[in-house]
Amino acid sequence: MARPIEPAELLLQANQLASRGKTTPPRTVDLRQAVSSAYYALYHCITRQVTLYILPQAQSSERYEFVRHFKHDGILQVCNWILRQNDQTPAQTRECSSTMRTSKELLTIADTFKQLQQQRHQADYDHGAEFTKEEVLGVIQLSTAAIEIIMRLSKVNPITLRCDPTFELFAAHVTLKAQMRPV
Q1: Does the pLDDT of residue 183 top 60, yes or no?
Q2: What does the pLDDT look like over 30-72, one tens digit per residue?
Q3: Which of 70, 106, 142, 161 has a Cα-to-Cα distance from 23 of 20 to 30 A?
């Protein structure tokens, strides 16, 4: 049976790694892994909640298969459209991007995703990058706050059977940026 990747477990791991070394500073490798885990907690929260929105009646196995098609750079591209970080926003998404920008919460998610992805790249690939325990705990806090926002925005209203309209747009655009991967 498939066991889903749980954002809460990744955040717990990140906190444990950053908090190691009670009498001495945490090891560099632990701080790097904590940054990576905080990023992946946010990434997996986004992909899970978008999948639940797109496929609310699907079996778990179908959702686990679907979620594998999301791409990190696709989510980043949507975040950049929201943040107006590039002049590459396609004409057909400009109106929706403008609507998404009206949500301070979605702006926070987009900015946090972008920051955490950059920091994860540093942690995983930049041998010269240095992290302090305080910086890493700040990264974990950013991830936690963004996850809380996603959970709030993606919650379905039992009366209207809809979630936040800006999250619906975000979910649609993230899904459109997903690509089928060869099996």
Answers
A1: no
A2: 999 999 999 999 999 999 999 999 999 999 999 999 999 999 9
A3: 142
CA 122-144-38 angle, to 5 degrees, is 30
Decide: pTM greater than 0.90: yes
The predicted model gives 120-138 an average pLDDT of 95
What is the domain partition of the chain in residue ranges? Answer: 7-177
| Cα of 9 vs its chain's centroid, Å | 14
Topology of the domain covering 7-177: Four Helix Bundle (Hemerythrin (Met), subunit A) (1.20.120)
Q: Under 8 Å CB-to-CB from 88, ≥6 apart: which residues?
A: 77, 80
Comparing CA positions, the residue from 47, 153, 154 lying closest to residue 104 is: 153
Three-state DSSP class for residue 178: coil
The residue to which tokens 């955490």 are assigned: 116
Buried b (16+ CB within 10 A) or exposed e, 22-51: eeeebeeebbbbbbbbbbbbbbbbbbbbbb
- 169 and 100 Cβ atoms separated by less than 8 Å: yes
Cβ-based neighbour number of residue 122 at 10 Å: 17
In this structure, what is the dihedral angle of CA atoms 64, 51, 15, 17, given to the nearest 10 degrees? 40
